Amino acid sequence: MSFKVAIVGATGNVGREMLNILEERGFPVSEVVALASRRSQGTEVSFGDRTLKVKSLDQYDFSDTDICIMSAGGNVSKEWSPKIGKQGCVVIDNSSAFRYDQDVPLIVPEVNPDAISLFTRKNIIANPNCSTAQLVVALKPLHDFATIKRVVVATYQSVSGAGKEGMDELFTQTRAVFVADQVDVKKFTKRIAFNVIPHIDVFLDDGFTKEEWKMVAETKKMLDPKIKLTATCVRVPVFIGHSEAVNIEFEKPITADEARDILREAPGCQVLDKREDGGYITPLESAGEDATFISRIREDSTIDNGLSMWIVSDNLRKGAALNAVQIAELLVERSLIQPKKKAA
Ligand SMILES: NC(=O)c1ccc[n+]([C@@H]2O[C@H](COP(=O)([O-])OP(=O)(O)OC[C@H]3O[C@@H](n4cnc5c(N)ncnc54)[C@H](OP(=O)(O)O)[C@@H]3O)[C@@H](O)[C@H]2O)c1
């Protein structure tokens, strides 16, 4: 059994990674179609050792396509996902457009796979925000063991989380600093080269940013609505890999050793935690990897049942493309989808 899969946003950071991951994991495809805006029509992207010619989304007919992985931003998704879903093609959406819709499941396969069955309501499944995806992969097994009451998280998010333009801006500004050229600020609100910016997405009335709000709302939707979470989201001059300094308060006792043992066995997690120089993960090492890495696990004696830890993952993979492909795999494993065209 194999499926016709369309990637919308195939020329973008996440779209390209999706093509790589579909290939790497041997997802059963009968055909892969690369879609983007009219600007990219006719350009080429790689799928394994094949080259795909990019087609324009607004001229593509989805009626014989089985799965559409959308990665072209919220506005494109709001306009297109419902139409594509109505044509009987299951949409896996990377944007925030449908994440908080009661009729759209928000899925991290290691965390809440059973919620996927809801997808038939709109034929849309949402992929979480990159910072939330890696966080809940690590929180879930700890929550099952000791019940999380409250989480305080500060993120250190790479520029690739802001798309191709974000990566270009870090590169261009860094070069400009070295050659004493003028440093232009376009994509971010302040200079990102040799700096950090405590602001991602728009400001809300309560002073938090939308990125911070997303982490709260998505953790509640996927893991447990009773968990209290507060976040500070910060952009840092790293190309790929989001890092998080996390403090967790549990209802029941849990030691650092117990947490380490639980996380070692947990799906999607890899513990790298030696109390010595270099005995922890950094975002540079996480780039290109599938795991959510956990380091610096230690007890926080300032609260009852408290732990602190450092969580790092490749935001383009577990934070976006890998999770989306895992959702597609879950649809197939659970026989929730059948190819429209039967193999000859
Ligand atoms: N980067 C991350 O860490 C991350 C994590 C989770 C979720 N996401 C989400 O994934 C999406 C894409 O992110 P990205 O980092 O890949 O961005 P990106 O590198 O800027 O790529 C954007 C893609 O969207 C396409 N696109 C833009 N307007 C379009 C239109 N009107 N019709 C069809 N295609 C259009 C672009 O095509 P052209 O080349 O033709 O312009 C390009 O392929 C966003 O929704 C983002 O929020 C990103």
Distance between the termini: 11 Å
Bound molecules: NADP nicotinamide-adenine-dinucleotide phosphate
Question: What spatial form do the alpha-carbon principal axes imply?
Answer: globular
Structural classification: alpha/beta
- Which architecture of the largest domain does the CATH hierarchy give at level 2? 2-Layer Sandwich
Rg (C-alpha, Å): 20 Å
**Major sheet:** 6 strands, parallel
Number of strand segments: 14
Quick structural summary:
It holds the Pfam family Semialdhyde_dh. This protein has 344 residues and is an alpha/beta fold.
What topology emerges from the helices and strands here?
Layout lengths: L2 E6 L4 H12 L4 E8 L7 E4 L2 E4 L1 E2 L10 E4 L3 H13 L3 E4 L30 E3 L3 H17 L1 E10 L5 H16 L31 H13 L5 E8 L6 E9 L5 H10 L3 E3 L11 H4 L5 E8 L6 E8 L3 H17 L11
Parallel strand pairs: 1-2, 1-6, 2-5, 6-7, 7-8, 9-10, 12-13
Antiparallel strand pairs: 3-4, 9-11, 11-14, 13-14
Helix pairs in contact: 1-8, 3-5, 3-8
NADP nicotinamide-adenine-dinucleotide phosphate (NAP) binds next to helix 1, helix 2, helix 4 and helix 8.
InterPro entries: Asp_semialdehyde_DH, Asp_semialdehyde_DH_beta, NAD(P)-bd_dom_sf, Semialdehyde_DH_NAD-bd, Semialdhyde_DH_dimer_dom
EC number: 1.2.1.11
Protein name: Aspartate-semialdehyde dehydrogenase
If you had to describe this structure to a student in words, what would you say it looks like?
Catalyzes the NADPH-dependent formation of L-aspartate-semialdehyde (L-ASA) by the reductive dephosphorylation of L-aspartyl-4-phosphate. It comes from Mesorhizobium waimense. Belongs to the aspartate-semialdehyde dehydrogenase family. The protein has 344 residues and is of the alpha/beta class. It has 2 domains: 139 residues, 3-Layer(aba) Sandwich (Rossmann fold); 146 residues, Dihydrodipicolinate Reductase, domain 2, CATH 3.30.360.10. The chain contains 8 helices and 14 strands. Strands 5-2-1-6-7-8 form a 6-stranded parallel beta sheet, with helices on both faces. Strands 10-9-11-14-13-12 form a 6-stranded mixed beta sheet. A two-stranded antiparallel sheet has the order 3-4. Helix 7 links the parallel strand 12 and strand 13. Helix 1 crosses helix 8, helix 3 packs across helix 5 and helix 3 crosses helix 8. The longest helix has 17 residues. It is globular, with a radius of gyration of 20 Å. The model has no long low-confidence stretch (mean pLDDT 97). The structure holds NADP nicotinamide-adenine-dinucleotide phosphate. NADP nicotinamide-adenine-dinucleotide phosphate (NAP) binds next to helix 1, helix 2, helix 4 and helix 8. The site of NADP nicotinamide-adenine-dinucleotide phosphate has 29 residues, from helix 1, helix 2, helix 4 and helix 8.
